[in-house]
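Need tokens for this chain, all 236 residues.
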Amino acid sequence: MIIHLISGPRNISTALMYAFAQRLDTAVLDEPFYGFYLKYTGLVHPGREEIIQSMETDTEQIFNTIAEIEKKKGNVFIKNMGHHLQGFDYTPILAYTNVFLIRDPAQMLTSYAKVREQPTLQDIGLQQQAELFTWLQQSGKQPIVIDGNRIRTHPAAELSALCSQLKLPFTERMLQWPTGPKAEDGIWARYWYDNVHQSTSFSPPDKKVLSLPEHLRTIYEEALPHYRFLSNYAAN
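Here are the structure tokens for all 236 residues:
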């Protein structure tokens, strides 16, 4: 099975990747389309040229590699960003088990702006997530939707429920991982993964009320309907 996580940035997508990496029956891939995305869009992200040069950017070959890993390992967990799926034929994901990971856009934007000060709606991927979800539904697929804050609040229960939906046995190995960089990290980890590298498990969400900076309010208002649409499908 290919478990395709479609997330936005500054969620718990990396921690979830680490959780699945603890499974003995699952290989993980960290944002395999990131290099293509940067090359296609021309966006300047930290480490842009190094990322492009170090990764496969032929999307057909990326899909072939994923299929090869599935044959060898049995299960593949792909951590992906919704906005990375543009500029190429991504219909092969119709054969995947697609899981959408969502987070309140105010929390996402506040965190993202610590790395890139002027994020756009495109950067956080919620609109692309909503569009992909609708496309999958129209194609006869019903994706899974999970909320990162729920996993952080009740990790054992939420991961057990997710594994049940995936028809995989839950293992408590998924609840902990070692600190520091991981072999499965993309080379962009040095720019984005400081907090998760200090973690060993899912931490409870911050209960402090965030004050959204004024320059992010317009993007927040644009993103909110997409978040609400997807949250309607998250398991209660």
